[in-house]
Specification:
The protein is an alpha/beta fold and about 425 residues long. It is about 30% helix and about 20% strand.
Length: about 425
């Protein structure tokens, strides 16, 4: 077992509490045993530690992205197809880019033919470094054009019995949650984001099946009718929530029952703004129609106390894995404070996954998933999306990514065997 002490850094622990200047963080094996003021730490007798001086730097929990599609390639038309072997390699590349960018945990809410389960198995076997993965398997949908556009991502299911069977299939494959499409999608041709799809009883069937094994349902929901259906049926997270602002009563219920909003603002920004060639007109039009409401919904939901968890929808068009942290900047533009954006990406995101007992904050007993950065993110959230700003990424007490090929004096025993370089 290797023990590590990080000294003299500013700790932003993910709880929303005031940062601790010149703090100390102690890692023993995979876990944090202390994070706080240095004068409160007392070394245990008989233990030795590797000391790392981080004066002038900042330590945060590893960031968590609650909404990604690791099999997609960020194509302008968002289509998913092609050889499965290529998709597998792309998934590995996406995972490593994401980890190197300081995202130590992801929730994939629609993969491809369950390839993501094999990727997770390889990571858990120590073959590669990658984020921790919460996986939904195939997303559940009514009969839809999306199943043709995203080959291998959809599991079409019409009626309560078929939804029940489809949910059981994902759970059997190893899913950590069930993803349902409660409304149409921006990125599926011929669909209207505002239109409800699954009925309440169909969504409830998925909720019941997930609950049997202690798991939850995430509901893709743009339109207010679909959001209402998902909330009534018992979904735990509302993905996108574009038109949530149209019904304050739903927001009140979400706040009261702890139902999370995962806003995915970055997907719209990456389509609408900048030089983005070859995006189909139908994607551009729907993105422009929905983005203002998406921003408004996040602002109003946050004001009403709805818990917010960060999600990016990587890899929609030009929404690249590894640029995930820009979502924090967009959340701040919608009206959230910098600290609230960080909490949404750490503590709240862990709660949305049901993993709050092991990740999400720098507290004793949690796994040592953390990032070391050079700039104060409370003064510049964009800095979290700058690879050059990220000094180190630690996961489970091991360094899994670092800025430079030179180890900077880090002992070999602290390096994960499958680390990736993020220069």
């Amino acid at each position: 077992m290797t023990n590590t002490i990080f000294k003299n850094a500013t700790l932003i622990n993910g709880t929303g509490n005031k940062p601790i200047e010149r703090g100390i963080l102690v890692v023993e094996d995979q876990h944090i045993v202390f994070a706080g003021n240095s004068e409160l730490w007392k070394e245990a007798e008989g233990k030795s530690y590797v000391e790392i001086d981080l004066a002038g730097k900042f330590i945060l929990p590893g960031l968590i992205d609650c909404h990604v599609h690791i099999a997609c390639e960020c194509f302008p038309d968002s289509v998913l197809n092609g050889p499965l072997g290529w998709t597998t390699l792309i998934m590995l590349r996406h995972a490593q880019n994401t980890l190197a960018a300081g995202i130590t945990t992801i929730r994939d809410v629609g993969g491809r033919h369950h390839l993501e389960f094999s990727l997770r198995k390889a990571v858990e076997a120590g073959l590669f470094a990658a984020p921790r993965m919460s996986l939904a398997g195939k997303l559940l949908s009514i009969t839809s054009t999306g199943s043709e556009w995203y080959e291998g991502m959809y599991r079409e299911a019409d009626g309560v019995d078929e939804v029940r069977k489809a949910a059981r299939e994902q759970l059997k494959a190893g899913a950590d949650l069930i993803k349902v499409l409660a409304t149409g999608a921006v990125l599926a041709p011929g669909e209207k984001p505002g239109a409800a799809q699954f009925e309440i009883e169909e969504i409830r069937a998925a909720v019941v099946e997930a609950a049997k094994v202690g798991k939850i349902v995430a509901a893709h929901a743009h339109g207010i009718d679909g959001i209402r259906n998902a909330v009534e049926a018992g979904a735990k997270t509302i993905e996108h929530g574009t038109y949530l602002n149209q019904d304050p009563r739903v927001m009140e219920r979400m706040a009261k029952e702890g139902i999370f909003l995962v806003p995915t603002l970055k997907a719209g920004f990456d389509v609408i703004y900048g030089d983005k060639p070859d995006i189909p007109d139908w994607i551009m039009e729907k993105s422009k129609e929905t983005q203002e409401d998406a921003m408004l919904s996040l602002r109003r939901a946050h004001e009403m106390g709805v818990p917010i968890a960060m999600g990016t929808d990587a890899a929609t068009p030009y929404n690249f894995h590894g640029e995930n942290a820009m979502e924090l900047e967009y959340m701040s533009q919608a009206g959230m404070s910098a600290m609230d954006c960080i909490v949404a990406s750490t503590k709240n995101a862990a709660r949305a996954l049901g993993w709050e007992n092991k990740v999400g904050t720098l507290e004793a007993g949690k796994l040592a998933d953390l990032i070391v950065v050079n700039q104060n993110p409370l003064e510049n959230l964009k800095s979290l999306a700058d690879r050059k700003n990220i000094e180190h990424v630690m996961q489970g007490g091991k360094f899994v990514a670092r800025q430079f090929a030179n180890d900077g004096g880090i002992p070999e025993e602290l390096m994960a065997k499958a680390w990736v370089c993020c220069s």
